[in-house]
Amino acid sequence: MPGLFITFEGGEASGKSTQVKRLERRLARTGRKVLTVHEPGHTEIGSAIRQLLLHANEGRLMRNETELLLFAASRAQLVGEVVRPALERGLVVVSDRFYDSTTVYQGIGRGLDVTFIKSLNEFVVGACNPDRTFLLDLDVEESRVRQMRRVRPVGRQDRMEQLTKDFFERVRRGYLELARQEPDRVKVIDAARTEDQVEEAIWNEINGLLN
C-alpha cells in the first residue's frame, strides 16, 4: 500500500499529542503500519536542536532568523532520515507539527518573510508534503487555561509557551488563513470539544483517505 502522511497543527494545549496517540492506535487496529514523529526532534540531531530552541539558557538571546533556520534544520534531518524512508516503505506517518508551524509561528507570529519561509520549507521537504493536515483550533484563552492545568514543575514553560497572548492570537489567525487557502489539505477541527468527539471528527476524514 502507498504511504500516507498525516500532520497535526494548532496552538499550545490544543490536544495534538493526545490525538496523535489516538489516531496511531486506531490506524494500527486496521492493520496499517504506523510511525509517529514530532517536531522539533525525533532524531538525535533534531533532539539536540529542540533542546537549544526550547529549553537551553542560550535561547534567551536567539534571533528570530536563527530560530527559523534551526526549526528548518531539524525538519530536514527528520524528513531525510525518517519520514521519507517510512513513506517509501508504505507506512502511515503521523507527525505532531510540520512545516505549517514554521509558516505560522515564525512567519505570521514573528513577522518574518512568509514568501521566503515557504521557499525554505519547499527546499527542506522536497516532495514530502502532508496528504492531510488536521488543525486543532482552540481559543487562546482556553489554551491558557489548559496549560495551567498541565502537570509539570512550577515555572517550566518552554521558550515558545512563554510568548504573549497577542503572539498566539496572530498564530491562530495565521492557521485559519492557511486552512482557508488550502481547504483540501488542511481540515479545521474544533478542539474545544471532548477528546472522543475530536477523535471521531479526525477519523471521519482519515477514512476517506484510507478508502
Describe the structure.
- This protein has 211 residues and is of the alpha/beta class.
- It has a single domain, classed as 3-Layer(aba) Sandwich (Rossmann fold).
- The chain contains eight helices and five strands; from the N terminus they run βαβααβααβααβα.
- The chain has helices at 16-29, 44-55, 64-88, 99-109, 114-125, 140-149, 165-181, 195-210; strands at residues 4-10, 34-38, 92-96, 132-137, 186-190.
- The chain has a five-stranded parallel beta sheet, sandwiched between helices.
- It is globular.
What is the distance, rounded to the nearest whole angstrom, between the alpha carbons of the first and last residues?
11 Å
What's the arrangement of strands in the largest beta sheet? Answer: 2-3-1-4-5
Main sheet record: 5 strands, parallel
Overall, the morphology is: globular
Number of strands: 5
Evaluate the radius of gyration. 16 Å
Whole-number average pLDDT?
93
CATH superfamily: P-loop containing nucleotide triphosphate hydrolases
Report the sheet-strand fraction.
5-15%
Uncertain regions: pLDDT < 50 for 5+ in a row? Answer: none
What would a concise description of this structure say?
The protein is an alpha/beta fold. It has helices at residues 16-29, 44-55, 64-88, 99-109, 114-125, 140-149, 165-181, 195-210, and strands spanning 4-10, 34-38, 92-96, 132-137, 186-190.
